[in-house]
Design a protein that fits this description.
- The protein is mainly β.
- The chain has a domain of 157 residues.
- Helix content is 9%, strand content 35%.
- It has 4 helices and 23 strands.
- Strands 1, 2, 20, 21, 22 and 23 form a 6-stranded antiparallel β-sheet that branches.
- The relative contact order is 0.15.
Length: 435
């Protein structure tokens, strides 16, 4: 009882503080505050429990949900190593899908075996899921008859200069049709460069996929223009379909990674960043019925003084937000803690806020909050800091931190996030309990 009362008092006091935070001020986390453990429950931390933010009572390690460390792992899947796990939900059959990145049949990405650029795992009857039983996926889709996971859209794996891989950035389901955003990566190092950002769709619940060619956004690297255009003309099977792209009209340096979220208001919103993990964030949206039409997307160009978002449609809107100072949703000012990274946006009923989750650097999983899906967003709050929470398997770094409304219990007081670890190269589930 004493613990509950303390938590409620903390929540009330913090709610007063948050009233100032949501005035649209996007103040970065101070380095010192990230290092400091202020939770009143710090004395109760156990081996599997972690606490950092004043909003959070505790963070508990549930266990791995991919690879051989996951209970119930099936060797036939051929997924001993993978990452990410962007969640999206099919309500008609109550199935949660997780879009993973580079996948191997071994745990060491440095020596990949049976490399696939992306795979999708799924869990049936997610509404009935009991966290006390852990989390075991039911399989992968698409897959071979043996159950071996197939890629949705395979990357070239041809190294720097063409295309290294294709990594999913998030998915949505509209009237039974699956849409998955991904990025074509041309170069990882020394500087991350993408060829384009694209979308694939499935009309048979993930068994087969096809490109939505009109949904293609390009970078502004002139040296890669011909390569990027040729790659973007290929269907999922690698056949060049000869789609006529005007690269100048589709130049979108701040949408080289796009993270979709269903706003529950008739729109799909796509947060966009450039290549990398420390970026300025921008935003576009489209109605459900126009989701496959490039010129129907509206781009956020700014906010009125009362926080009302301003949108401009089509190529004119995209051209407007090429200006670095136009339409900034998250303003990266050079301080890592002001940045936006590879994100997941979802609604948390318990907090009564939209939540944006992502990682910073090699150690921090953070979240921001907003009253509206389009912002304005609070500063970043730490969920997990690897420096203070050593994983049992000795992970060198963590990233990701994705969640979904179907990965929440007690109306969102308990939120389950998917955290990628390196190495072992796999996905771990963490239970976040809010005060």
């Amino acid at each position: 009882m004493k613990k509950k009362i303390l938590c409620l008092i903390t929540s009330f006091l913090l709610s007063l503080t948050c009233a100032c935070t949501f005035e649209g001020e996007d103040s970065p986390v101070e380095n010192d505050s990230v290092k400091e453990t202020t939770s009143i429950f710090s004395s109760e931390v156990t081996e599997n429990m972690y606490t950092k933010s004043d909003f959070i009572e505790k963070v508990t390690n549930v266990g791995y949900i991919s690879g051989r460390l996951m209970p119930g792992y099936d060797e036939d899947w051929g997924v001993r190593g993978t990452d990410l796990g962007h969640p999206f939900y099919d309500p008609e059959i109550d199935r949660l899908l997780l879009a993973h990145g580079d996948t191997f049949n071994n745990e060491d990405p440095g020596t990949p075996i049976l490399w696939r650029s992306n795979v999708i795992s799924y869990k049936k009857n997610i509404s009935d899921w009991d966290p006390a039983e852990g989390f075991t996926v039911d399989g992968y889709i698409p897959c071979y008859e043996s159950g071996f996971a197939k890629s949705v859209i395979e990357g070239k794996h041809e190294g720097a200069g063409k295309e290294v891989t294709k990594i999913p950035r998030g998915g949505v389901v509209i009237n039974g049709v699956y849409y998955l955003w991904y990025m074509s990566v041309g170069v990882w190092e020394p500087r991350w460069i993408n060829n384009y950002s694209g979308v694939v769709k499935s009309t048979d619940r993930g068994r087969t996929w096809e490109r939505v060619f009109d949904l293609t956004w390009f970078g502004t690297n002139s040296e890669r223009a011909a390569t990027a255009k040729a790659l973007a003309q290929e269907n999922v099977n690698g056949t060049n379909m000869g789609y006529a792209f005007n690269l100048a009209e589709r130049a979108a340096p701040n949408f080289m990674q796009m993270f979709p979220v269903d706003g529950k208001d008739g729109y799909i919103y796509c947060y966009g960043i450039a290549e990398g993990i420390h970026c300025t964030g921008k935003l576009c949206r489209v109605t459900y019925e126009d989701i496959e039409i490039f010129d129907k997307y509206e781009y956020l160009t700014g906010y009125l003084s009362d926080g009302t978002p301003q949108w401009e449609k089509g190529k004119e809107g995209l051209a407007a937000v090429k200006d670095p100072d136009v339409g900034k949703v998250i303003d990266f000012d050079g301080d890592m803690y002001s940045a936006m990274g590879e994100s997941c946006i979802t609604y948390n009923k318990y907090l009564g806020k939209w939540i944006m989750l992502y990682h910073l650097g090699n150690a921090h999983i953070v979240f921001r909050m907003s009253d509206n899906v389009w912002g304005k967003w609070s500063r970043a709050y730490t969920i997990l800091d690897l420096e203070d929470y050593p994983f049992p398997n000795g992970a060198e770094r963590t990233y990701g931190g994705f969640s979904h409304e179907m990965l929440m219990k007690e109306d969102g007081r308990k939120m389950y996030i998917l955290v990628s670890t390196w190495v072992p190269y796999n996905v771990c589930m963490m239970e976040v309990t809010f005060c």
